[in-house]
Amino acid sequence: MSHERASSSSSSFAGLVSSESSSESSSSVSEQRTNSIHKALLLPPKQTSMETSSSPKPPPKPPVHMTSSFVDTVTADDDDIEEDIDERKTSRKQRYFSVFLFTTTSAFLYADQNLLSPNLSQAAEEFNFSDREKDVKLAGWLQLAFFVVGSPASLIIGWMCDKTESRVRLLFLTTLIGEGPCLATYWVTKYWQLFMLRAMTGIAVGGCLPLLFSLCGDLFSHKTRAKVASFLTIATGAGIAFGQIMSGAVGPKYGWKVPFVVSAAPAVFFAFLTWMLVDEPVRGGMDVKVNGNHFGHQNRAASRGVGEESEEGGVAIGGEEKKKKKKQKKSSRKDSSKSSSKRDENEDDIISQLSVSDIEIYSGKMDVQKLKRQLRVKTNVLVFIQGVFGTIPWGVLNAYFVDYLHANRGLTVGQGTAAVTLFGLGGAIGVIGGGVWGQRLYNRNKSSVAVLMGLSTMLGALPSYYFVNSTYFGPSESLLYFSCFVTGILCSLTPPNVRAVLMNINPPETRGSVFACYSQVDDIGKGLGPVFIAGLIVVFNGRQIAFNVAFSMWFICGLFLLMMKGTIEKDAETASRQMEAEIVRSPARERTQNEEDNNV
């Protein structure tokens, strides 16, 4: 359908141009109306037929890649166009500065996920809870509320992410809505207040993941996305670790409420900086190859909500020109008898205004049908399924491992904590190494990254059998520490590459919703993992067999990852064709494109 719209749009372009060139005695009213459109859009005024015949044909202008909402910054002069393109090209330094703000915001957002756990007893004492109430109400119900609110919030914000014109503004608002209650935790006096505020905080944690990966998908091409995904993946884990360490250090001295302020205030601050300093990237700006893959930014005023939005979603010019523009749109719609939908009318209206310009517009917009289509993509389905099995072993490491080493293997709590720390250190190395290694493999052969993910996940289960079943860990528990370190590396190679694959096989206007669905699956695995393991402990009447079964889930996860070897290449090509079908070209650009295709 999108390709048909693009074709019909080009034909409408051609029809408009031919009709204008054939009618030498067109009315001055029509010419004035057309010139006012071009003036409002900063385009050169249309020439009359006499001027056309007497003036030499100007050289073709370089194409400008832009979204359908960004039609108010096209310039007429060749030098001005080149300067405008240069201004909208994002340098490597600027893009990585954006990633720095994203990762810092994400780290502080995830820092408040487990802030209460180091100070449970102190909080229970303030609320006069018994030991049982402490475990149920503070450790159980609050975490449940956090994810019960955060999960649907992720879906809603993911959809809004694909529909909004400014994702950086939505990121700030999401952070403010979620971290505002986190700040307010400092003033709670009753349990129900704490419960409500912790539930609201889940909005920020649940909504940030689809927003951040959608933005990064339009900041970086498929050749570097795995590396960037590794930064965001590390930020989440580092944020959780920082939150627990900070809460354990600050809480006993200054009170259990202070860590919530220390975590929330920087999150809001960095989200505000992101809104102020990061320009909204063009959707598809790094996916649709336009004359060397120019990368443009939307108007900074548009990304911050300055001005009023036009019916196409862009920023209206304002004043009398805005009124004229609206009248011209109405008259243009009346003249268009072939339009069958509102979107077609909007596209035809933009095209009629830009008829003499050398422009390509990526017109992809999110709708329910596209979401259904993407949820049927084989690689997406495999990613979702492997996520359920792959997160179950983490339930052992997060909820049971230290206590298992202490109670069942006779180690001290400090030795168990050291083992988990080395596991986390290995995980950080695995995430960085996996992003770099996986990116190189993907650039050579897209399917080969599936082999890396599948085999590394399976191999990661092998050392776990050692530290679950062994009763001797060598001198000073060196073999325990080494096996935990190796397991951390191997099982962490997959996450950055899985997220890069999701960015690569889904068109830019669908990524927010797809990542929201991925977040749901990830949360289900993390939430139900400990419950599933608890059931295994009851069934097998002990922890050892239950933990062996849990770590075996990485083999099932690895199988689904290996199955992606036969789907990634095809799904990436399909996504490329879908994005190409969403491009609307002006006649001048269409002719240039045809000439390039013929030369090839």
UniProtKB/TrEMBL annotation:
Organism from which the protein derives:
Bathycoccus prasinos
Give TM segment ranges: 95-111, 138-158, 170-189, 195-216, 228-246, 258-278, 381-401, 413-437, 449-468, 480-502, 546-564
- Record flagged with keyword Transport: yes
InterPro entries listed in its UniProt record: MFS, MFS_dom, MFS_spinster-like, MFS_trans_sf
Stored Pfam families: MFS_1
What is this protein's record name?
Major facilitator superfamily
Compositional bias per record (Basic residues), positions renumbered to this chain: 323-332
Which stretches does UniProt call biased (Low complexity)? 7-31
Topology versus the membrane, per the UniProt entry?
Answer: Multi-pass membrane protein
User: What domain of life?
Assistant: Eukaryota
Question: Under the cellular component aspect of Gene Ontology, which terms does the record hold?
Answer: membrane
**Region feature Disordered, mapped onto this chain:** 1-68, 299-347, 579-600
Under SUPFAM superfamilies, the record lists: MFS general substrate transporter
List, as start-end ranges, the regions of compositional bias called Basic and acidic residues. 333-345, 579-594
Q: Which keywords are on file for this protein?
A: Membrane, Transmembrane, Transmembrane helix, Transport
Cellular location(s):
Membrane
**Could you tell me one molecular function GO term of this UniProt entry?**
transmembrane transporter activity
